[in-house]
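Worked example 2:
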Amino acid sequence: MIILGIDPGLNHFGFGLIEWEKNKIIPVKYGQQKISGKYKFEEKLAFIQKNISSILDTYNPDVVVVEKIYVAKNPQIALDIGIVTGIVIGVSLSKDKKIFLLSPLEIKKEVTGIGQAGKQQVSFMISKILNLDKEPDEDASDALATAFCYITQQKFNRLIEKTV
């Protein structure tokens, strides 16, 4: 099973692909896509749509897991991230992908043990968990952490199903 984690953003977004087979968790590809500040709002959305579509076509993940919007200090930022999240969900659904949304608190707690962990702590821990040579960019590490959190939740759910 291949899981695509997405850390949505209007000026840059992170993606992380993890293969999960039996008890093996293997990072496949991850990165951060920066979006030119010269682009108009609509052009940024088109860029995101094309890039997410390309990632889906290239790696054909079974599941797309998106970090939920958080409460931002600036309502416009929250709205913009919400729109980007909608685009990611729409593109994924158009390609018949399963969608899951996870909160930043769930992700941080799963990866670091602390729900209020900083981005640097998440990046450090996810690089150790996935045995990466170096820490990924913040958005990429958040995306990998999102995919990893989905896996741990699924493992837990399967364990519960076996005991019931």
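The chain has a mean pLDDT of 91. The CA atoms of residues 99 and 134 lie 29 Å apart.
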